[in-house]
Design brief:
Blueprint: H1 9-13, E1 21-23, H2 32-40, E2 47-52, H3 53-57, H4 64-74, E3 77-81, H5 85-97, E4 102-107, H6 112-116, H7 127-140, E5 145-150, H8 160-171, E6 175-179, H9 193-202, E7 207-210, H10 216-226, E8 230-233, H11 243-253, H12 262-279, H13 283-297, H14 303-310, H15 316-327
Parallel strand pairs: 1-8, 2-3, 3-4, 4-5, 5-6, 6-7, 7-8
Helix pairs in contact: 2-12, 5-7, 7-8, 10-11, 12-13, 12-15, 13-14
């Protein structure tokens, strides 16, 4: 069951003594179930990701009620996307009324189906339209608003993401998050930390740095090289729900990460599957869990044996059994073998 809590990210971003680390909003990954796992593992700042403004604004949308229930249950930070200023404004106000603590506007996603609708990083090709959207969202709500974007759309072209962040500050946004790549790069190439550092120097509002963050040392490097107020970790949290809390401990007191045992990992995996089954009370919960399995098991000896068993299993009880045997130290080659029972 979700618990609504107050998130003090803004206070931490504005405090020079703090170095907050947050979980990136990842469509299809940081859903309600995985957010619950991340919170149990100590993550303090996380978003309800990639909420379609069209779905929220349209009373007949089949997805609307699900979005609103999540926000009413959790509150916190909510990220929206669309290319229409009026639609974004309407959605932002509805989400505020449902209990959102802040609204984040996505102008950084490079998924093709999002681009087809003109949203996400496609807005970086039209800085004036992007600005209209930012102003519409800001004027629609009384809660803080933020922007997540990239340097620009095409490499070696106008850096419209930098300009969008500057305009967001002028409009009254509370902070911005910059992924140090161009939209057309996807996740290829390397992050340009210099662009993040430049943005920090241009703005008086806090900047969160994002991109290629995999370890606590990477986070420290991002803080030191850019002067950013916070760091956001994305893909590296998949299958590693302790990464952010371990990183905050490392920053605060130099505490080194401890290796997680099979038992540690299985405990989290079982919690995750139960959360998915609560969200999808049928075989879909088991199916949704499959995509996380390889992320969780990476680094463990003979993980492929366990993974192959789990991704073929439709029965939740059997998934639990396989995981428990793995956690108890049963040799991978004998997991699932009931001949000894």
């Amino acid at each position: 069951m979700s618990v609504k809590i107050h998130d003090n990210l803004i206070d931490r971003l504005q405090d020079s003594e703090e170095r907050p680390v947050s979980a990136a909003p990842l469509a299809g990954w940081t859903d309600r179930a995985y957010r619950s796992v991340l919170k149990k593992c100590g993550v303090r700042h996380i978003w309800i990701p990639f909420v379609s403004s069209h779905a929220v604004a349209n009373a007949k949308s089949p997805n609307r009620d699900a979005y609103l229930r999540e926000v009413m249950s959790e509150g916190g930070h909510v990220q929206i996307f669309a290319a229409n200023p009026d639609v974004n404004a309407k959605a932002a106000k509805i989400l505020e009324d449902c209990g959102a603590q802040t609204i984040d506007f996505n102008a950084g996603c490079s998924v093709k189906k999002v681009h087809k609708g003109g949203g996400g990083s496609a807005l970086l090709k039209d800085i004036d339209l992007l600005t209209e959207n930012l102003r519409a969202v800001k004027e629609a709500v009384s809660i803080p608003v933020s922007l997540k974007t990239r340097i620009g759309f095409y490499r070696d072209s106008e850096r419209t993401g930098i300009e969008a962040c500057r305009r967001a500050e002028d409009i009254g946004f509370s902070w911005v998050t910059l992924h140090g790549r161009y939209a057309k790069q996807g996740f290829g190439g390397t992050v340009e930390v210099e662009a993040i550092a430049e943005l920090v120097g241009l703005l008086s509002i806090p900047v969160i740095g994002n991109g290629d963050i995999c370890t606590p040392s990477d986070v420290v490097d991002m803080f030191e090289k850019t002067g950013c107020a916070g760091v956001m970790i994305g893909r590296a949290i998949m299958g590693d729900p302790w990464l952010i809390s371990d990183t905050e401990d490392y920053i605060a007191g130099g505490v080194q990460r401890q290796s997680r045992t099979r038992s540690d990992m299985v405990g989290v995996m079982l919690d995750h599957q139960e959360a998915l089954l609560e969200q999808f009370p049928d075989r879909r919960g088991v199916w949704e869990f499959r995509k996380h399995v390889s992320k969780y098991l990476r680094g463990f000896a003979q993980a492929s044996v366990v993974r192959n068993l789990l991704v073929r299993e439709d029965d939740a009880d059997e998934v639990r059994r396989i995981l428990k045997e793995f956690g108890e130290g049963r040799p991978p080659s004998r997991i699932g073998d009931q001949s000894e029972d």
